[in-house]
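Why do we care about 3D structure at all? Because function follows from shape, and shape follows, mostly, from sequence. That is the central idea of this module. The next example makes it concrete: a single protein chain, its amino acid sequence, and then its structure expressed as tokens.
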Amino acid sequence: MNDNDNDKQSLIGVDPLAWLSDEEKQSVLNENTAPETETSADAQAQTGSTYTVTLNSALTIRDVSELMAELTQIDDDCNEIIFESAELERVDTAALQLLLGFYLSATHAAKKVIWHKPSEALCHAVEVLGLKDVFGIKSAAV
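And the structure:
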């Protein structure tokens, strides 16, 4: 293992985007910075099928496999995914890594991802990990 690999491994758990080069990070941030999302009624009128993922009160490493199973079941023809997270009270890094991977994959496939009423816990977690701009989450539910 060379020094570069050691540097990357020492950052795992601190920066979820540590494995990306600075150029790749900037590309991800630029691609996923979007204007305010439309209301879901407006979005449904403009798009085909919509899938809603309801996040429970806790989303931890114990819940990742179940969430991953649900996310992989989303039809390829679905072009809008709505995450309902108003009830989410606890989220950990493993769950955010899964959500980040799904979010990047979905947006790369030109799917619209909407964070409907993001919980305070979700907003805080993405802020702490420096992912707020990547996810495009604006603020906690009111």
